Amino acid sequence: MVWNVLRDARYSLRQLRKNPGFSVVAVLTLAIGIGATSAMFSVVNGVILRPLPYPRPEGLVQVVEIVPRFGRFSVAPATFLDWRTDNRVFDHLAAYTTGSATFVDAAGPERVINAMVSWDIFELFGVPPALGRGFRAEEDAPGKASVIVLSHGMWQRRFGGDPGVLGRSISLNGAPFTIVGVMPAAFRFPARQTEYWVPLGLNPANATRGGHYLGVVARLKDGLSLQQADADMRTISERLALQYPDASAKESAEVRSLHEAAVGEVRPALLILLAAVGVVVLIACANVANLLLVRGFVRAREIAIRTALGAARRRLISQMLVESLLISLAGGALGLLLAYLAISPLQTLSAGSLPRVDDISIDGRVLLFSLLLAMATGMAFGFAPAWYSGRQRATEVLKEGGRSSTTAGGRLTRSVLLVAEVALSIVLLVGATLLLRSFARVTDVDPGFQPDRALAFRIALPSTSYREEPQRIAFYERLLDQLAALPQVTAAGLVQSLPLRGDYVLSFTVRGRPEPKPGEGASANHRSISPDYFKALGVPLLKGRAFTPRDAEKTPMVAIVDQAFVDRHFPGEEPLGQGIDIGNGTDGFYEIVGVVGNGHHYGLDVNPNPTMYVPFKQDVFSSVWVVTRTDGDPAQLAPLARQAVRAVDPGMPTFGMIPLANVVTDSVAGRRFSLLLLMLFAAVAVFLAAVGLYGVVAYSVSQRTQEIGVRMAIGAERRHVLAMVLGDGMKLALAGVVIGLTGAAALSGLLSKMLFQVTPGDPLSYIVTATVLLVIAGLACLVPALRATRVDPVVALRQG
């Protein structure tokens, strides 16, 4: 058995060397399909299939609050403390929040991303520090020792990997911290940009139930299931709702695996893309199967002679399958190389739209997948030609020189394969067209501001040097004056959160209205802004007035709301002059003095949420975004903006510098990633289908040369021959289009969650797709059809 396989392999290699053109085309066709599929599988493997890089990752869970109107939500500090005390299902329950701080050493100031965490979070994940120790329980309390654990990246980058870094004191926001540990390179929780960890230091005495800002992770006790943990946390939430009706009414909790929390939102899109690239492999297989069928017809006489000399049908089929496997393995090896080369571009393309992009790689699972895929494709495209060749009767082939066999049974098989190629291509092309039209609709949405010619950057004032609100206000005013004085700047403003990047939500009550029932109070996005913010961002003022420098800490409190706020909370009423009590009710009422246009805070495809704005002098934040509008290129303004900041405070770093146009672009990164990949797969599929159609029609012309010569000899005009050949090819293409459109209509519902203002049955998408493919099919058929019109009848008849 093994000897026969080896002998067949040697014979197949000789045959492939004799036909280099066929071999190269077949291998390249398969390499494109297998390479694309392996690359996409590496993404699915790294993001979805690979477990989280922690010991016993199946026991790691995320716990969130379920809040009316918002769904899954961050956790309030007091709620977390109750969970930690009352739960019976977790070995560890830890909270965290992210932030940033100014790190200063001899190399100068740098803004670094941090995480404030419960003291036992490293123990929860089962990852001890690579150097030193983690935190102690007594250090996770307000006013205790300031200790810090560095990430491996920051240790290498700012301390040169010095093992003597333990015990060293460093400055963060002007305050001293002692380094007690360094984490391994693989530990990057809660984000890959995290540079260091410090204790969270919650104070039970003043922990709030109204401010939701904590993330919560936990490790299940051995033997307990996710469902048991979820039930226990919901029971605790029900008790808290009864105990604190004003803050926790109608709120609940949910427990889900940490892996699901990380990748759950992107799983459907990635699986759809993997299925799409699998279609490309099927088309490649059909293409190669057609090539093998044609090659089998050419070799019909050789096979007939071998049969006449005693070769068994089983041996012939075996030999041809071995040849198919050799082609597929060669295509698989080249495809794997293409997949490897695609990893870096895929990571770049998916950055910002996919979690765990650093885990995308060619590992053992991807190698095994590629090998199995290559073997499966070899059997798939090799079986039909091998079976058909083995069924040919030697006597008929030898008697008729092999011609009859090429026109009888094989024509139907080749036609079916071609129709399948076109149909599968249509399915992908419809999906890509739907996503393209959806993407166009998203990008046409007015974000509510003018992103062109505007630059944003972030400033965070350290509490040690800017402890009091008057100090912060004075810094911001001097900075805005410095920026406004630049000749390129037409307006400069500040805000605590940029559009399209989430927001800060606060509850409020309306003056003169009854107190809402527990859990039914109104809430809206809240932003603290400077007077020229709307001008810098290009937000239109619809009614009333904008803020002025006179709206300060000792003047009457005022607010501006957007049109969405008016529509929801003051329908049919005059909003100007109304009073809203923002937050916890201790500040009094803010009088509404203006109405501005709506803005998108959570994405262009999310309806604008009601938003209320207050003067920054009446609600001072230590970390803000500065927005500057320029009459030129925003990128050229960046160094001048940094100089303006240093002119106010030489030690103050700027970070997050970004043109506002890029903020809009980044907000659709996930949609763009899915669209580009599906369009690429559809383009490859259509190309392969067109090549297959060209090959079938060209081969048909070559086999019908004598027939065409006869037709022309008895008076057929060239245009009639052209129409005949084109008609034969286009009938196959049209059949594939009809079947493909039917399949696309049945499957397009899978894309419904990825579409925006476009229905899965959008008729324009189907019409455009069918038209494009039929035009491409016509061009593919035209070349061999024109060749048929140039047949010389005399030569054709003589060859017959």
Could you provide a short overview of the structure?
The chain is α+β, with helices and mostly antiparallel strands and 800 residues long. It folds into four domains: 1-53 and 271-407, no CATH class; 95-222, no CATH class; 422-442 and 665-800, no CATH class; 462-651, no CATH class.
Please specify the SSE layout and strand pairing.
Blueprint: H1 2-18, H2 20-49, E1 60-67, E2 71-73, H3 77-86, E3 90-105, E4 108-117, H4 121-125, E5 131-132, E6 147-150, H5 152-159, E7 169-172, E8 175-182, E9 196-199, E10 215-220, H6 226-243, H7 245-248, E11 252-257, H8 258-263, H9 267-298, H10 300-308, H11 313-350, H12 364-391, H13 394-400, H14 403-407, H15 409-443, E12 454-460, H16 469-484, E13 489-495, E14 504-510, E15 522-529, H17 533-537, E16 541-544, E17 558-562, H18 563-569, E18 579-582, E19 589-596, E20 611-615, E21 623-630, H19 634-648, E22 655-659, H20 660-667, H21 669-703, H22 705-713, H23 718-747, H24 763-789, H25 793-799
Parallel strand pairs: 4-9, 6-8, 15-20, 17-19
Antiparallel strand pairs: 1-2, 1-10, 1-11, 3-4, 3-7, 3-10, 5-8, 6-9, 7-8, 12-21, 12-22, 13-21, 14-15, 14-18, 16-19, 17-20, 18-19
Helix pairs in contact: 1-11, 2-9, 2-11, 2-12, 9-12, 9-15, 9-21, 10-13, 11-12, 15-21, 15-23, 15-24, 16-19, 21-23, 21-24, 22-25, 23-24
